[in-house]
Design a protein that fits this description.
The complex is a heterotrimer. Chain A is of the alpha/beta class. Chain A has three helices and nine strands; from the N terminus they run αββαββββαβββ. In chain A, β6, α3 and β7 form a beta-alpha-beta unit. Chain C is α/β, with parallel strands linked by helices. Classes of the chains: A alpha/beta, B alpha+beta, C alpha/beta. The interface between B and C is medium-sized, with 33 and 35 residues.
Chain lengths: 164, 374, 181
Amino acid sequence: MEKELFEKIKNRFSDSKIELLNNTGIAKIYIESKDIKKILGFVSTYFEEKPFLETIIARDIDDSFSVSYIFREKTGDILTFETETNKKKPELDSIASTWPGAEVLEREIQELFGIVFDGKEYTSNMFLADQWVGKPMKKDYVFPEDFKGIEHRRNPLKKEHERP
Amino acid sequence: MSNQNMETEETYYSNYGPQGGLASGPLKLKMTLSGERVVAAEPDVGFLHRGIEKTCEKLQWVALPSLIEKVDYLSSIHGTLALSLAVEKLMKIEISPRAQAIRLIVSELNRIASHIYFLTTMAKACGAQTASQFFLRDREKINNLFEMLTGARLMYNYVCVGGVMSDITEGFIEKTHDTIKYLKPKLKEYDDLLFNNHIFTNRLKKTGILKTSDCISHYITGPNARASGFFYDVRALSPYCGYEKYKEFLERSIKPVTQSDSLDRLQQRVLEIRQSLEILSLEIDRVPAGTYKEKLSKDGKVPKGEAYSVVESSRGLFGVYVCSSGGNVAERIKLRTPSLSLLKVVPDILKGNEVSDVPGVIASLDISVSEIDR
Amino acid sequence: MRGKKGTWTGSSSGELMKNLENALPEYAVFTKLDDIINWSRYNSLSYLTLDLACCGIEMSHVEGSRFDIERFGSAPVASPRHADLMIVAGTISYKMAPIIKNLYDQMPFPKYVISMGSCSNSGGIFNWENSYAAVSGVDKIIPVDVFVPGCPPRPEALLHGLVSLQKKISKQKVLVQGVFS
């Protein structure tokens, strides 16, 4: 199923770099980050019904972030697409106009990893507390010492709160 | 008098706070009201964010099932089953038929227990406090069964990589037969308590409408979608663990409707309790002989690679993605939970209802806040 | 009897003694009055449910008919202004911590706190080594009377914790405090 789709995409967009990888256990199609809107827009009209967007996964590899999109067709098979973006200025295009369920997933990735989708940065946090410093899911994140007066470590021999 | 209110259209702000609401967990709703009607409602989540995905990168592989259980604590068997199926794909192990049959029995028992707890919350939300005592009494019978098999009442720690942790104890099969014989006439008693009571049904009719087109465009699955006309069941579409024989039985519940209200979603879950009791009574008699757990190597390492597997939990499609780099500790684990897709649809469902209907609508959607926040 | 702000037994014995001085003779000592006040307090504790996570399921099983909590005189209430006891069940995150402090401040004196489960005792599996977003124990925010261990604790364990709190209340000194000091 993926081979057919891969041949069709390679014939239509012959000037972009597209590969089919199958060495880790999941078969995925690797595309460049500037071609996301073109290729995924083509995928949404290629089948009879639009495939469902299941999840968006972001990972921290050594020098870059890798983002995977998993789609599910009506018959029950899955399709996986993967892109990469660099760590100094992480930016990607958003697909929320075609699949409305992508908005919450992209907002979560922006809070926890720092990747900005469509140039739009949210001012208030959804999962983390207000005025949280740092992006927690990166590999080089250090746990905070204290947050607004509450100390993070716990010493079992020290009594914390006295009765008034 | 009501015409005068509509002409001025003054709106005010009110709070449905994180404590004391009737979702199972802290959920905050910021509501804009005009008179008694809800004009807009925006949900605020994050009060139970514990950082589970980052904690998975610090614990060893053996300790992971006890952490994934706490993501959706009412269906903890389904969470650990999804994790075990993904890791078994990486290690390339085959599971014996006896372990698969035991896993099927335990999943169906967990589904019945979760739906009975849903009925308790629903009865408390609409003021029927006597009915909630009857439902809690019946949930204790299923807790007794689990305690006989696994030793615990809520966090079972039973399904692991390679099979299950221990074999069926003696007396378990007879006690399951007794429980099924006890529960089947109780469903008629639930009808008398809930559905033949016109005071209860008039509170729920025509409130909280969910349409089929919304389910398809936002990918909402589970009993919410099956009550609205969008049939999506992982047990029928891509079966696992021995569900292949029940495909036509499960497809009998397809309904040709275009929308659902709170009463339809309540009736759908009582129908699913009935389906699960049928499947249990057929499976409990024919458990094949064999081993209950495969032998694994003792160093606790998982080979390098990626895998993704899905399971039908009591709220919808639950998926686990696993990435390993060949060591003792996982590299990345991502959870796909069914309640997260409901977040964008809740404002549309609540619009136009009255303030006194809001607890009933929120309880009928069966939102689990720990799934959204992780 | 209006008490001084901040004393947790709800009364300042110095003022009480001054009020009762003129009414009764000097050599009368009020030990039995303490017993009656404590007896009426521990037999009617209505609790505020802070039902955050998995331990909340076992807390709602306690209200059922198998493990009955109403035989001890307790019943759940929804508003903090009507409550004597707060049972904290579940993990506390940094976003939820100011709300719990707010709820504790809204309860009137005398008030007591039970901490239920590993996550609110000391952080549990989400403690300061493993997770970045959970507070390691609810006693960093409010003072606690009884700790009930377990993950989750059985309903019988929660009832044992309630009985221990009743024994602790029966030993309080309300009026006798100022006499022998």
